[in-house]
């Protein structure tokens, strides 16, 4: 028998059952996704607009299943009709029955790789562009100029303007799997987050419910209106680095290379970046609290220094005025003493001239004037004494205030030093978070890369399982093939895939065995089955 004719015959038999199986599984998957989206609120026109992208999305899932069903059914029929026995009797080795279909499995794996790596990300991006255009269309139709956007995944809130705590011209878009399923429009409202931070209370007034319209009409269909309503939005965890789903495999690899280059300069890396980020954020919170306390203390110290400097300036002004007064008082005393000397000279002159005025009267008048002048001198001396005492008090207050300023300055210096240390600690913690985030991003990039690669191998691994299973079952019944396919896929492959992704994202298990585990199990099963049929 000509080997090439045999290979063509095997490939023809495979495709004879593969194409109907692919159409069947594509239809089932599209129907399931459509029912799910319609149940979540997507309208029929919008559903038809995204069906082509959904078909691309389901293709990598339908390919392995269809190939497994087609392989089991083809080789089951060959075995049931004893064609395999006849081929063996003709002296053709069993590997000649396997090689062409395995080659087809490799080609389909390459096709699935291309779909996962390049086509699907662009398809996701097209869907996002459609949604952005739909959002702009709704906003433009209702004359809303969105100056602010708030994301409460899976809700996007667009706000036209803000007046105090009151928002004007509000548009709320609800998404399910990148598709808009509900729209709320309101003239005004408020947004509040509960104390636990678990949900958002959105109070809207004078609004309406809309459904997304993917048709050519300008107006979106209105499905209801309200005067005032309060909506509760649960704060779900936002999908991290959601833009990665729009990134092609080559770009993912390039991004990971850039992250690797950045991390290569770091000697030690964190074993658990997630715990490191949580610990560092708590540390940053403590640092912020301490910095706030220091800021309050610095403000108090600044106020005390300003008060002390004000008091010093006031007391120095008092001392300056007191010294000025001292000069005046001393001048008064000097003038008074000069008057005493002047009176004494006048008395002597009158005695020499033998004034006709009685001597007794002159003595009394002289004594009276002297007494008055001495009273003035004593008064000025008391004022000098009081002023000196005032100067001493002011100097003592100035010294005390200066000591207080020096003391506060030392405290301020210590507070500034503590603040600098806290700044350094903050920088260290921020660098730890940045490095841990890079590690997380690198792991997430690696997971996404392997998630694009590993499903591609499923086409080959399922063919390798299907060949021996078909030979062993010896049945060309479509239901038997579908039953085997569903058992392998629903109870073995996809549970392993889901478990592997959960384990890989937990940051505690190696990525390759986690993501590739399902394919590794398939290859092990296929190796055991081939060993069994080769021994027969």
Question: Would you give an account of this structure?
Answer:
This protein is an alpha+beta fold and 536 residues long. Among the domains are: 3-110 and 458-535, no CATH class; 276-438, Helix Hairpins (Orthogonal Bundle), CATH 1.10.287. It is built from nine helices and six strands, in the order H-H-H-H-E-E-E-E-E-E-H-H-H-H-H. The protein has helices at 3-39, 44-80, 83-89, 95-141, 249-264, 273-353, 359-473, 478-505, 511-535, and strands spanning 148-152, 155-163, 166-176, 179-193, 199-210, 222-234. A hairpin with a 2-residue loop joins strand 1 and strand 2 (155-163). Helix 1 (3-39) runs parallel beside helix 4 (95-141), helix 4 (95-141) runs antiparallel to helix 7 and helix 8 (478-505) packs antiparallel against helix 9 (511-535). It is elongated. The two termini are 22 Å apart. Mean pLDDT is 83; it is low at 213-221.
Secondary-structure topology with pairs:
Layout: H1 3-39, H2 44-80, H3 83-89, H4 95-141, E1 148-152, E2 155-163, E3 166-176, E4 179-193, E5 199-210, E6 222-234, H5 249-264, H6 273-353, H7 359-473, H8 478-505, H9 511-535
Helix pairs in contact: 1-2, 1-4, 2-4, 2-7, 2-8, 4-7, 5-7, 6-7, 7-8, 7-9, 8-9
Q: End-to-end distance, in Å?
A: 22 Å
The tally of beta strands, per DSSP, is 6
What structural class do the secondary elements suggest? alpha+beta
Share of residues in strands: 5-15%
Characteristics of this structure?
single chain, alpha+beta, Helix Hairpins, six-stranded antiparallel β-sheet, 6 strands, elongated
């Amino acid at each position: 028998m000509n080997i090439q004719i045999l290979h063509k015959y095997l490939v023809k038999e495979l495709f004879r059952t593969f194409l109907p199986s692919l159409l069947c599984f594509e239809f089932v998957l599209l129907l399931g996704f459509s029912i799910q989206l319609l149940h979540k609120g997507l309208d029929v026109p919008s559903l038809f607009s995204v069906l082509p992208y959904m078909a691309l999305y389901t293709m990598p899932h339908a390919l392995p299943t269809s190939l497994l069903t087609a392989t089991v059914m083809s080789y089951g029929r060959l075995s049931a009709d004893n064609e395999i026995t006849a081929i063996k009797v003709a002296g053709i080795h069993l590997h000649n029955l396997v090689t062409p279909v395995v080659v087809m499995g490799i080609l389909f794996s390459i096709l699935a790789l291309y779909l996962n790596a390049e086509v699907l990300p662009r398809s996701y991006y097209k869907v996002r562009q459609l949604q952005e255009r739909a959002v702009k269309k709704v906003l433009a139709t209702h004359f809303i100029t969105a100056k602010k956007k708030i994301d409460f995944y899976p809700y996007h809130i667009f706000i036209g303007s803000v007046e105090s705590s009151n928002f004007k011209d509000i548009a709320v878009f609800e998404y399910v799997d990148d598709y808009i399923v509900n729209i709320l429009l309101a003239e005004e409202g408020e947004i509040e987050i509960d104390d636990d931070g678990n949900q958002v209370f959105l109070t809207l007034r004078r609004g309406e419910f809309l459904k997304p319209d993917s048709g050519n009409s300008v107006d979106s269909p209105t499905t209801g209106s309200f005067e005032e309503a309060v909506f509760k939005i649960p704060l779900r965890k936002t999908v991290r680095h959601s833009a990665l789903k729009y990134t092609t495999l080559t770009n993912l690899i390039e991004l990971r290379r850039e992250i690797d280059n950045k991390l290569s300069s770091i000697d030690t890396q964190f074993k658990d970046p997630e715990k490191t980020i949580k610990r560092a954020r708590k540390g940053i919170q403590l640092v912020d609290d301490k910095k706030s306390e220091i800021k309050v203390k610095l403000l108090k110290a600044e106020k005390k220094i300003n008060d002390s400097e004000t008091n010093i300036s006031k007391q120095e002004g008092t001392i300056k005025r007191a010294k000025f007064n001292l000069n005046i008082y001393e001048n008064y005393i000097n003038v008074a003493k000069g008057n005493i000397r002047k009176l004494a000279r006048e008395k002597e002159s009158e005695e020499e001239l033998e004034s006709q005025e009685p001597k007794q009267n002159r003595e009394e008048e002289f004594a009276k004037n002297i007494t008055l002048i001495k009273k003035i001198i004593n008064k000025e001396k008391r004022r000098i004494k009081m002023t000196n005492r005032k100067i001493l008090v002011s100097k003592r207050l100035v010294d005390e205030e200066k000591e207080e300023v020096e003391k506060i300055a030392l405290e301020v210096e210590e507070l500034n030093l503590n603040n600098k240390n806290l700044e350094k600690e903050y920088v260290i913690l921020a660098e730890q978070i940045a490095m841990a985030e890079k590690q997380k991003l690198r792991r997430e990039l690696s997971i996404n890369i392997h998630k694009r690669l590993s499903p591609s191998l499923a086409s080959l691994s399922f063919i390798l399982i299907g060949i021996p299973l078909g030979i062993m079952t010896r049945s060309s019944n479509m239901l038997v093939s579908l039953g085997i396919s569903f058992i392998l896929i629903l109870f073995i492959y996809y549970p392993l895939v889901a478990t592997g992704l959960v384990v890989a994202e937990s940051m505690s298990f190696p990525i390759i065995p986690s993501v590739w585990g399902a394919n590794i199990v398939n290859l092990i099963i296929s190796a055991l089955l081939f060993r069994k049929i080769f021994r027969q």
